[in-house]
Design goal:
Layout (H helix, E strand, L loop, with lengths): L7 E2 L20 E5 L4 E7 L4 E13 L2 H5 L10 E13 L2 E13 L5 E5 L12 E4 L14 E5 L9 E8 L11 E16 L2 E8 L11 E5 L15 E4 L8 E3 L2 E9 L4 E6 L19 E3 L5 E3 L7 E7 L4 H18 L4 E7 L6 H10 L5 E4 L6 H11 L4 E2 L1 E5 L5 E4 L8 H8 L2 H9 L3
Parallel strand pairs: 20-21, 21-22
Antiparallel strand pairs: 1-23, 2-3, 3-11, 3-17, 4-5, 4-11, 5-6, 6-7, 7-8, 9-10, 10-11, 11-12, 12-13, 13-14, 15-16, 16-17, 18-19, 20-24, 24-25
């Protein structure tokens, strides 16, 4: 599990934490139909929802005497009982829904833990709600951790059920002395197949655990690389759909498509064809980022193209969360000191439209940032820059970074550029020793 940095949306995105996991595709049916004007491709959802790799935590509190009486068994004297709720939520075009499901956990030294969980609208547990699993120990969940797979029915949909994977951990990550118990739950995604470019293409969508609806905003994933799976790190295969001004488009061979409709009752979804001239690739490694103009906070006019021949770290950030970007600024400051004489330049893009230039300047001074920084709130280029990011960056999270090579091609993004990896990534492209020798005229 990578250490998670707090992230804010570029423009109204609901933050998520995603950790990579390989999930094998499930066989499914797909078909395509076309009209003379606009191709419409129809895919079929698989009944089985697949496990996703994001997670949440639940803090269970020590049970009261009345809570213990709700159990169908009498806990022993050395058994600790914890209670709490699994909070479910989903958002779609119909609005936001929430549902709380009761849980109880029995922990006895030297024995397997017992979890009580049900989806009924009452707080009474029965023996049928009893699940046994083994607790993990320490600060990390081991790869071979035994787990409990709970299921939530989704009546009225094509989906068989919504799975939730439960792992437990007896150590509070912030306060080990706290009375409580941490439970990890993994979320799940709907998937299906659709015929694109003459082949059955895997697609995945965020699905709600309450109604089974395709939620919004939603990560839409499409196997555009043709590997039979979804690369969690690929911006080309994973895009955020359902936000104003944020386009979503995919290229699968010679097929250019955008999301269409979803019918979880009928078990179908559609993709709508695009003219290839309207397609703009999402930023990803190997993509040449288009040129754009911007005005820095000091009033100077710049264009991205003036940095050709250098390695440019283009990073997006918000002043509304100084603790989020503090580690990022510290890492950039260190990298700039090391590599500025070797062809490295950071360019910051502040995504706030409600923060003054004076406030941003003071913010940067606190972090000793003396490189070019612009903002969505600056005139005259701020609005155009925001529109450019909507089209190319497409609602990713900040702080978010991309490293652009001397030829304008993106060579690294996000995960490889987080604070604890930035120096190592830069040195893979700009070896410090080699650059120093070159400056000294040494071979």
């Amino acid at each position: 599990m990578r250490a998670a940095f707090a992230r804010l949306p570029l423009r109204g995105v609901v933050p998520l934490v995603v950790i990579g996991m390989v999930v094998l595709p499930v066989a499914g049916r797909a078909q395509a139909s076309k009209t003379a004007a606009t191709p419409i491709y129809t895919g079929t959802f698989d009944p089985q929802i697949v496990m996703d790799t994001s997670y949440d935590t639940i803090l269970l509190q020590l049970a009261s005497p009345s809570d213990r009486q709700r159990l169908p068994e009498s806990p022993g004297a050395n058994t600790r009982v914890y209670t709490g709720t699994l909070e479910l939520s989903e958002s779609d075009t119909a609005g936001r829904r929430r549902k709380s499901l009761p849980m109880a956990l029995l922990v006895t030294p030297g024995q397997a833990s017992v979890l009580y969980f049900h989806t009924r609208d009452d707080s009474v547990f029965t023996i049928a709600d009893r699940h046994v699993f083994h607790p993990s120990h320490g600060d990390h969940v081991p790869a071979d951790q035994q787990e409990t797979l709970l299921t939530i029915p989704l009546p009225g949909t094509v989906f068989a059920e919504y799975p939730i994977r439960i792992l437990d951990r007896p150590v509070h990550p912030i306060d080990p002395a706290a009375q409580g118990y941490i439970i990890f739950r993994s979320t799940a995604r709907a998937q299906g197949h659709i015929m694109l470019n003459g082949r059955s293409t895997l697609a995945r969508f965020d699905v709600g655990p309450i109604t089974g609806a395709i939620v919004s905003p939603v990560w839409i994933s499409l196997d555009v690389l043709g590997t039979g799976d979804i690369d969690a790190a690929s911006r080309t295969e994973n895009q955020l759909w359902g936000l104003p001004n944020i386009p979503v488009m995919f290229k699968v061979g010679d097929a250019y498509v955008r999301p269409g409709t979803f019918d979880v009752r009928a078990g179908t979804f559609t993709m709508i064809g695009l003219d290839r001239r309207d397609y703009v690739p999402a930023i990803d490694t190997g993509v040449v980022l288009a040129n754009f103009a911007f005005t820095a906070l000091n009033g100077r006019a710049h264009q991205l193209s003036e940095y050709r021949g250098k390695y440019v770290l283009l990073y997006f950030w918000s002043a509304h969360c100084e603790s989020c970007v503090g580690p990022t600024f510290k890492a950039i400051r260190s990298a700039y000191d090391t590599h500025k004489d070797h062809g490295f330049e950071p360019v910051g893009v502040n995504v706030d439209t409600d923060v003054s230039a004076d406030t941003l300047t003071k913010f940067l001074a606190r972090h000793n940032a003396n490189w070019a920084v612009t903002s969505y709130g600056l005139r005259p280029t701020g609005a155009a820059l925001a529109a450019f990011a909507d089209l190319h960056v497409r609602g990713w999270y900040c702080p978010f970074s991309m490293l652009i090579g001397p030829d304008g091609r993106i060579v690294a993004t996000d995960e490889a550029l987080v604070p604890d990896k930035l120096d190592k990534t830069l040195e893979s492209f700009i070896p410090v020793q080699a650059a120093s020798n070159e400056l000294k005229g040494q071979p």
